[in-house]
Amino acid sequence: MNARLALTSFAFALSLGLALPALAAEPPTEPAASAAPASKAEKRLELLRANAGEPVERVRFLRPMHGYEVVGPLDLLVWETPFKAWLVTVRDSPACNRLENEWKLGFDVLNDTLNTANGYVVGDNGLRCRIDSLREVNVKAWRQAERDAGIAD
After folding, report:
1. Domain that holds residue 98
2. Strand partners, 10
3. pLDDT tens digit string along 60-111?
4. What is the DSSP annotation of 99-146?
5. Contact 127, 94 (CB under 8 A)
6. Which residue among 6, 55, 71, 143 sits deepest, i.e. has the most Cβ atoms within 10 Å of its Cβ?
7. Is the Cα torsion angle 94, 99, 102, 108 positive or negative in sign?
8. Is residue 20 part of a domain?
9. For the chain, how many structural domains are there in total?
10. 3-state secondary structure of 70
C-alpha cells in the first residue's frame, strides 16, 4: 500500500511539475505605452520648442500682452501681439506642477519686462513660478509645421 501511495504521489508531483510552468507563463503583452503616438498637445509643444529661438534673458513689451495659453506642464505661450509669441518655461517646483488647473495667471514683471532674473508667473492661491527661460517663437514656421503635421486648428 505504501508503494501505491508513493507512486500516486510521484505521478501527482510530476503532473504538477509539468503544469506549473505553463500556468506561470505570462500572456503576450501589448506594446509599451511610450510607443503610443503623442497626443495633439504633446505634438504641439514639441513643434513650439522646435520653432523657438535661443533663450534670452529679458523681453520688453511695448504694449500690454495680447494673451497667453498654457501649452505644457511648465510651458506657456505668451502672445506679445497676434503675430509675435514667446515660449516661457517656468522652473520645475511643487508650486508649479499644475499650471493648467489655475483659473487665471498673471505675470510679475518690472517695467513691462519679462525676465529670467526675477520674473514670475503668478496664479491663484499664492502660486509663484519663477521664469526659467524665454524663447521667441517663429510663429509663421510653427503654424506651418502644425499644418504639415495635421494638427492645426
Report:
1. 36-149
2. none
3. 887 888 899 999 999 999 999 999 999 999 999 888 888 888 888 888 877 7
4. GGG-S-EEEE-BTTEEETTT-EEEEGGG-EEEEEEEEEE-HHHHHHHH
5. no
6. 71
7. positive
8. no
9. 1
10. strand
